């Protein structure tokens, strides 16, 4: 879950029972407790003042639910199934060993929780393109480019999609379908509804920590898994860990949330550059030779270095381009101005238009059953628009 600002509610009986069960399994819990966090589900909060360096949670590896925990007759039925798929098939089955995890299972998200926050389970109405302008010239995708098919609405070229590959959501769906088909071959009674449990956590208590772009120190070895405070925390303050340096698009697809503040956030901007590159064989070869073909991104600070190289490949002659790549260029204000104009007008202005169109399209979605999903997508598109507009200030004197 996310690190959005929220408040902790009073202890839930399920959390109390789970905490007691965790202690019986050998989990040590120090100065923190599980709590229901408003607007986003479970979390961990400080019970008292905590100093930096205090060990907060210690989980013996023997309590982790892993492949080694599963019945041998279940594992023998699968050969090429991922670990997530294997664990999911166990959780969706009726093996008697599941009874020992009932206190843990009571804290897991419900199927409806997943339907609200996981794009893979969202209805088609949030995946289709909508015509916003009366002309109907452009159809706007409501899913951000990294999540959807990988392209923004103003470019749907087949060769572009082949160049950048499928978006995050499609990659997840391909893996999910492969695992599901494998499971159903062996356990035909398992349905798609039951198999959705493969998103569940497998580390008791410690996996109730929510994610932030900076969090507590986590360490593990053959003996235990520990969470140590990275700074001081006050009573009632939520305590976080970090799942890694992930963009908000990745977090939404894999975990079902976006952070309000994320220093690792970015958006892909391949499609403004790649069509021009693909249409010019010499440009494509030039960038490919130096290892700068594709993977262009934007943050609030501006475009990445790979993007700067690609733009120089489009506006400089071969000699000056080679000098730029090797850091030997003589600074030329005209080249710099030309590159900045390209970024401001051909990249950022186009993307800003796209974000505005997506927000307008989402406002027209009035299905009462998907208001939570709509709110998540509007939040993400506002983040993208704000990122674009902040970056634009680095390349143009006038606002978008």
From TrEMBL:
GO terms for molecular function: protein-lysine N-methyltransferase activity. Pfam families: SET. Residues 30-244 form the SET domain. It comes from the Eukaryota. Coiled coil: none annotated. PANTHER family: SET DOMAIN-CONTAINING PROTEIN (PTHR13271:SF137), UNCHARACTERIZED PUTATIVE METHYLTRANSFERASE (PTHR13271). This is SET domain-containing protein. It comes from Heterodermia speciosa.
């Amino acid at each position: 879950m996310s690190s959005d600002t929220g408040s902790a509610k009073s202890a839930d009986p399920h959390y109390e029972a789970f905490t007691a069960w965790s202690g019986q399994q050998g989990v040590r819990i120090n100065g923190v407790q599980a709590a229901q966090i408003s607007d986003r589900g479970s979390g961990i909060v400080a019970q008292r003042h905590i100093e930096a360096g205090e060990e907060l949670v210690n989980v013996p590896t023997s309590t982790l639910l892993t492949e080694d925990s599963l019945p041998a007759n279940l594992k023998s039925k699968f050969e090429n199934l991922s670990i997530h798929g294997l664990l999911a098939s166990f959780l969706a089955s009726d093996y008697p060993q599941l009874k020992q995890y009932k206190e843990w299972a009571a804290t897991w998200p419900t199927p409806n929780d997943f339907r609200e926050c996981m794009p893979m389970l969202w209805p088609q109405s949030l995946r289709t393109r909508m015509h916003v302008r009366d002309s109907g010239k452009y159809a706007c995708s409501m899913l951000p480019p990294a999540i959807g098919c990988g392209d923004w609405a103003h470019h749907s070229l087949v060769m572009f999609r082949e160049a950048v590959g499928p978006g995050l959501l499609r990659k997840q769906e391909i893996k999910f379908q492969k695992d599901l088909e494998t499971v159903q071959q062996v356990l035909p009674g398992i349905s798609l509804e039951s198999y959705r449990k493969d998103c569940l956590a497998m580390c008791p208590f410690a996996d109730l920590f929510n994610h932030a772009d900076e969090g507590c120190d986590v360490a593990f070895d053959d003996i235990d898994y520990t969470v140590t405070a990275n700074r001081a925390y006050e009573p009632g303050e939520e305590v976080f860990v970090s799942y890694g340096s992930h963009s908000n698009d990745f977090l939404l697809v894999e975990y079902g949330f976006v952070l309000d503040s994320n220093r690792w956030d970015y958006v892909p901007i391949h499609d403004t550059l790649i069509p021009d590159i693909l249409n010019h064989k010499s440009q494509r070869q030039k960038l490919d030779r130096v290892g700068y073909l594709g993977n262009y991104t934007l943050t609030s600070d501006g475009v990445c270095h790979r993007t700067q190289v690609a733009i120089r490949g489009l506006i400089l002659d071969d000699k000056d381009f080679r000098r730029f790549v090797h850091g030997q260029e003589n600074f030329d204000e005209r080249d710099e101005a030309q590159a900045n104009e390209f970024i401001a007008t051909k990249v950022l202005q186009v993307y800003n238009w796209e974000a505005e169109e997506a927000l307008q399209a989402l406002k027209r979605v009035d299905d009462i059953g998907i208001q939570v999903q709509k709110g998540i997508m509007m939040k993400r598109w506002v983040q993208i628009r704000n990122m674009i507009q902040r970056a634009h200030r680095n390349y143009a004197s006038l606002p978008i």
